[in-house]
Amino acid sequence: MNRLLVVRCPDLLHEDENGAALRAFAKVVDAVESYCPWITTVRPGICSLPARGPARYFGGEGPLAQLIADAISDIATVEVGVADGLFAAVLAARSGLVVPAGGTPGFLAPFPVGILGRPELAELLARLGIRTLGDFAALPESHVLGRFGADGVACHMVAGGRSGELGDLCQPVAGRRVGEQRAAGRPAGAVVGEPGFWGGVSDTDVRAGRALAAVQDLIGPDGVVTARLQGGRGPAQRARFTTWDAGENRVDSSLGAPWPGRIPSPAPAVVHPAPLPAELAAADGQPVSVSGRGLLTAVPSRLSVEQQPWSTVTAWAGPWPSDERWWSRSHRRGARLQAVTASDAHLLLVERGRWWVEATYG
Amino acid sequence: MGRVDPIGHAKPGAILYEHMFVEYRPRLVFPGPGREPAEGYLALLAERTRPVSSSQTRLLPVLSPLAGLLPDGSLRRGTTIVVSGLTSAGGPDPSGGGISLAMSLLAAASGAGSWCALVGLPGLGAVAAHDMGLDLDRLPVVPHPGAAWAEVAAALIDGVDLVVLCPPFPPRPVMARRLVARTRERRTVLVVLPGRSGWPEHPDVHLSVSDMHWDGAGTGDGYLQRRRMTVIARGRRSATRPRHHHLWMPSTTGAVEAAGTGIDIDVAAPAVAGPMART
Q1: Nearest CA in chain A to B124
Q2: Does B16 reach chain A within 8 Å, measured CB to CB?
Q3: CA distances from A273 to A240, A244, A307, B121, B126 (A)
Q4: Mean pLDDT of chain B
Q5: What is the domain partition of chain A in residue ranges?
Q6: Is pLDDT of A70 > 50?
Q7: Three-state SS letters, A185-224
Q8: How large is the angle between the packed helices A61-72 and A20-33, nearest 10 degrees?
Q9: Which chain B residues are within 8 Å of A272, Cβ to Cβ?
Q10: Dihedrals phi, psi of B137, to nearest 5 degrees
C-alpha cells in the first residue's frame, strides 16, 4: 500500500452556493502542487499525494507535512497527515499525525466501527460486542465474508489496514469539478484550444460518445484509444496513444517546434506498435550493416520482414544516423533507412547491427 | 555540411547537416486580447469551426482527387466500400497502399466534423492521418478488438459516420451480411480493409491498388517524397465499369493529389465486382 499524505481542509468540505469553498480549495491544490505534481483531489476539501518521493526530497515525512501545512495555512485551516492507504491517511490528517510505516493497523485499531461510514454494519457489530476497528479486524475473513458479504470484506480489509480505501470514499465527479475550477481560474495561455461548436456538444458527439462507451463496456476501457501528436524524430515518437476519455480536453503540444533530423513528410501510414525484426542483405547474400561512420557496408538488394520471403529492394534512401539521449542512460544510437520494395516502402532502423521495420508507408 | 535544405524551407543563414530536416508548420496561436490576430489566423479558425455534417445529409464529402472513384462523387451513407492494397504485398500487414487509401476516404468527412472510427488497425500512423486531413480528436481507434471485432464494429456503426474495419479473423458470411445491413440501416459508411481475412459480401464499391511507384529515393540519395498510385474502382449499378485513377498518395506534403490524366475506362476488364476471395 502507498504511503499517502492527505491534506484536509475542514472548512472547505462542503460546497456553498456561490462556489467560494471550491475556489479556495483550488488555491490549496495549486499550493500543494508546488511540492509534488502527482496530486489527487479526493473530494472537495481533501486531496492526497504519494508521500515517498517528496518525503525523501524534503527530509522526511514529518518535515514534508509541516512544510505543506505552513504553505496552506494562510489560505485555509488545514490538517495534514501521513499513513498507509487513503482511509488511514484521512484519519491521520484529522488528528494531524504522521503514522510511521507499518503502524497503520495499530493506529486504526482504537477507532469506533462507525467511522467506516456503514451505519447498518456498525449497529450490527455493536450488538455483537465489536466496537472498534481492531476488534473487527481480528475476526477471521471467511466469517466476515459469510456474514456480511463482499462489502463487509472490503470494510474488514480497511479496518485491518490491508486495503487503502472504501469504494465510495472517492468522489470522482467532485474531484473533476475541482479540476475544472482550477482550469477556469488559471490565466489563459498563449495557445487556445479548438473553440467548441455554437451551443456546446452536438448530437453527433453524444451519439458517438454513447457508441464508444458501449465498445469500452465490451472490451474494456483501454480497448479504445486515441492518438495525439507530439514532437519527436522517429515516427513512433511523434504520436502518443492514450485511452479514450470523452470528457478530456485535448490540446496538441509542440507541433510547431522543429526537430532536426526528423524524416520529412510524407509520414508513414503504418507505425508498428513494436518494431518488426527484418533482414537486409546485399546481392551476394551478405548481411548489410551500417558502419560507425554512418555508411552502409554494402549495397542493399533484398529485404525480408519477419522471416517472410525475400523481396527485392528497388530503391533506398539513407542511412541517416540518429544519436539520441547520448547524455543519459537511455542512450540510443542507430540509423534509419528508407527501403522500397515492389509492393511497399518501409522505414528501417538499425541498432546494434540488427534491422527493424519501424514503420511502413502502407 | 552546407546551407542545403532538402525540402527548400531553409531560413537564410541556417546551417543544416545534409541528413537533418527541419519542418515549419503553421500553428494556431491566439495573439492575446487587444492585439491584432496574425494573418491567416481567422481563416484557420473559420476552417476549424465548420459545422458538422448532419446525419440527414445523404452524402459525405470526399477529397476532390478521389471523387472520380465513387459513383456519386462522394461517399453515400449506408454503403460498404472494400479497399485492397497491392495483392503482391508480401509485408506483415495487409497494406500495399490499402491503409493510405482507406484513410484518404475518411479525410474530407473527418475534417468537416464527422466522427470516424478504426477497428482492428494496431499501427495507425497518426501523423500520416493528420497530414491527410483527418481530425484525430474525432478518430477513436480500437486497435485490438480480438474475438469481439464484429460486436465492436456493430456498436461503432451505430454511433459514428464512418467505420474502417480490418477484420482480424476471416468473417463468416452471415456476420458480414449483418454488418452490411446494419450499415445501410444506420446510414453509416463502412470501409473494409479485408487484408488476408477476405470479405465474403459484395461491396457497393471496390477500390483496389493496381500499381504504385515511389518518387524521391534512389540508391541511397534523396528520401521518399511522393507515391504515384493507380487505383481501380469497381462497383455496382452506376459504377459497374472499372475506372482507373492515378493519384499522388501521399503527395510531398502527405496529402492526396490527382496525378496524370485522370479517369480512363477499361473495357476489357470484367464488369462486375465479385466477393473477395480468401487468400
Answers
A1: A270
A2: yes
A3: 11, 17, 18, 10, 12
A4: 76
A5: 3-159, 270-360
A6: yes
A7: HCCCCCCCCCCCCCCCCCHHHHHHHHHHHHHHHHHCHHHC
A8: 140
A9: 92, 122-123
A10: -70, -25
Whether pLDDT at A24 is above 70: yes
Reported confidence tier of residue B9, pLDDT bands at 50, 70, 90 = very low
B137 touches chain A (CB under 8 A): yes
Query: From the CA of B120, how many Å to the nearest CA of chain A?
Result: 11
Q: Is B58-265 in CATH node 3.40.630.30?
A: no
Q: Quick check: A250 contacting B, CB < 8 Å?
A: yes
CATH architecture of A3-159: 2-Layer Sandwich (3.30)
Contacts of B116 in chain A (CB under 8 A): none
Q: How confident is the model at residue A180 (pLDDT cuts 50, 70, 90)?
A: low
Amino acid letter for position B253: T
Q: Residues near B103 by Cβ (< 8 Å), separated by ≥ 6?
A: A269, B128, B129, B132, B134, B164
Chain A, window 181-220: residues with a beta carbon less than 8 angstroms from a chain B beta carbon: 190-192, 194-195, 197, 202-205, 207-212, 214-215, 218-219
For the cut 90, the answer to whether the pLDDT of residue B180 exceeds it is yes
| Secondary structure element (H or E) that encloses residue A259, with its range | none
Nearest to B220 among A195, A203, A317 (CB): A317
Average pLDDT of chain A to the nearest whole number: 81
Q: What is the model's pLDDT at position B273?
A: 43
> Which chain B residues are Cβ-neighbours of A262 within 8 angstroms?
21-23
Are B191 and B102 in contact by the 8 Å Cβ rule? The answer is yes
Cβ contact A347:A341 at 8 Å: no
CA distance A338 to B239: 38
- Rounded CA gap, B227 and A10, in Å? 65
Establish if B8 touches chain A: CB-CB under 8 angstroms: no
ipTM of the complex: 0.72
Looking at residue B252, what is its pLDDT?
84
What pLDDT is recorded for position A252?
Answer: 53
Using a CB-CB cut-off of 8 Å, the residues of chain A touching B91 are 305, 308, 343-344, 346, 360, 362
| Half-sphere exposure at residue A99, Cβ-oriented, CA atoms within 13 angstroms | 29
Pairing mode of beta strands B205-215, A40-43: unpaired
* 3-class secondary-structure state, position B263: coil
CATH 3.40.50.300 residue spans of chain B: 58-265
Instruction: List all residues 6 or more positions away from A80 whose beta carbon is below 8 Å from its beta carbon.
Output: A5, A6, A7, A8, A65, A66, A68, A69, A93, A96
Length of chain B, in residues: 279
Report the distance separating Cα A257 and Cα B249, nearest Å. 26
Residue contact A340–B138, C-beta within 8 A? no
The distance from CA A197 to its chain's CA centroid, rounded to whole angstroms, is: 29
